[in-house]
Amino acid sequence: MEETQLNRSLGFWSALALVIGTVIGSGIFFKQASVLQMTGSTNLALMAWLLGGIITLADGLTLSEIGAQIPHTGGLYHYMTHIYGEFWGFLSGWMQIIVYAPAIVGSIAGYLGLLVTNFFGLGAGWKAPIAIGTITLIALLNMLANRYGAAFAIVTTICKLLPIAAIIIFGLFFGHEQALGATVAGIHQSVGNFGVAVLGTIFAYDGWILITNLGGEIKRPEKLLPLAIILGILLIIILYVGVTFGIFRSLSANRINALGQNATAYFALNAFGPLGGRLVNIGIMISIIGALNGKIMTFPRIYYAMAAKKQLPFSKQLGHLNRHTQTPVVATLTLLVLTSIMILVVDTDRLSELCIFVMYSFYIAAFIGVFVLRRRNGGKPTGFSIPLYPFVPIVAIIGTGFVVVSELFFDFTGTAISIIFIALGIPLYYWLKHHYRNDGSVTKL
């Protein structure tokens, strides 16, 4: 009987929609005020969004060279395994599947539940059921053939671009405020605050790396994966800076500062009226649903990739692909169950924050891996080549290092807890290695 394998059917537009759709959630609509508050002026706020985007683009360019050489399912897990060995690959995957994936999905779903309850005037008790119900429906969709999840990504990405375009166009052509050179009264500008603002924008750009988890399902990944990552990040930079400029053109700096996270909702109500304001809010909810779809589609591929290498308990089940849909149904169900439990019993926002230090440390290791791979290949890349090498990967390493150092200083307790999470995986790795040492069979990814 022929072995079931992942379906390599995703084209460029699906990959691009997943990059954009997974990154753009709620941050683009709610972070303008916080970045402005940190920087104290519209000029520095726009610069923070641009600098965060440039660092993210350097990250994407750097990882594109690795992804073109290692176009396999599992993304970062596979890259770490290939470059540094199975021990470090396991730890990078372990942190993602046991904490980061369910926590980040739970955090976004919980926020969606809050928005929906507020929008329809429901009680707070509906937040968790709405969150779990939403991720259940999206998980069921992604148990079908991957083309359905990809099509949903394209549709939700188009839908989320509509309110974004409306904000940008209104600000450019109908805004009357001074978008450049405006300052917030009473806020002192400092390098330290600017650094914190850039840090916030980098988090808003995060998520693009998840497309690499689908390396085994993208057509011609050595070409399309780098193209989707680079164009996706470039478009996101334009959209983030455009929305920020549009809001700055429509509301005064002091008004944005006073409104805080409500600045976009206030803008929508004043710009488009009550109906238009509600439509923008619906667009924001669709944006979040699209981000959830991208994460629920991509994260289970890490479970599957690790199970295929016999690096998880119940590897046979987690590495199973449905014969008809060619998708990792059990892995998707596992993510759904873990996420639902986290939504009900823990603070998913805090859990996702705890993972930042370790996750970005693995990012740095992957970026350094570009130099390792080039040395192995005689100093030349195979496939996609990073422009302005080695300047671009150095920018990626420094920018990501800034995130790691910031987490170490601002959240030392969280950093220590995240290291403990990682350490818990070490005995599991050696137990699994002993358990499966006589079974050399692995699934072809």
From TrEMBL:
GO terms for molecular function: L-amino acid transmembrane transporter activity. The chain crosses the membrane at residues 12-30, 42-63, 98-120, 126-145, 152-174, 194-212, 224-248, 282-304, 325-345, 351-374, 386-406, 412-432. InterPro entries: AA/rel_permease1 (IPR002293), AminoAcid_Transporter (IPR050598). Keywords: Membrane, Transmembrane, Transmembrane helix. Pfam families: AA_permease_2. It comes from the Bacteria. GO terms for cellular component: membrane. It is a multi-pass membrane protein. It is found in: Membrane. PANTHER family: AMINO ACID TRANSPORTER, SOBREMESA, ISOFORM B. This is Amino acid transporter. It comes from Furfurilactobacillus siliginis.
